[in-house]
Fold each of these.
Amino acid sequence: MDVKLSDTMDSHRIYLLAEKQDLGEPLAEEVSRRYFEDGALLADRRMLLDVARSVGVTGGEEYLDSENGYEDVRASLREAQRMGIHSIPVFIFQYAGEVLKITHGSSSIQEFEQVLRELPGLISKQKQVKA
């Protein structure tokens, strides 16, 4: 199935609302399913609100009707760019709140293997810093 590109601002905003209600993961999973499997547009407000309601998010319509979340999304994008993230998927390997490695989904198997070999040493170093 071909997926169509669309403005993702509202999908990011509704995700932020869901995160505040500890429902970010189920919302993201269902939005992703509808996008990749059903071909739903990420800018489809009815779909976003339907998913939000189905996972238990409250106040979605009011939130999207407001100006809430715009600056938070922009700040997240700036932070991602600062970290070198320019596409999805991306894998962020962390330990104790510190980013150890960032690997893009387009990386080769060999690059992933290298990261996985490096992680134990990076974690050991991080433990020493925290001690």
Amino acid sequence: KIDSPVRKKALELLDEYPSLRGIEKVVAEDGLKAILTLRLAPVLPIPIGLYNYVYGVTSVPFFDFAGGIFLGSLKPYLLDAYLGVFSMSIVDGSINESGGLQDIILLVALG
């Protein structure tokens, strides 16, 4: 690994928070599953972008990292797109024409 100021700061962050050290070990052992799980349900009260620094300190393979980030990003992106379409149908009044009950049930189920 290349020593850089960002890597040194990330290592300091790992030393400061023991829970991040545990995440680092799990990500190093089982990269794709761990990254996908953390992307879908972040367990620490830190911004989601800070997880990328933790991943950068570990020895997670590139394709595990890229696959976990890509697959884990699909849910929020698709949900945001759906909510945009759903909101637009409410605003323009077409929700009553297209059987909006299914949309409302889906929205309540997704939370």
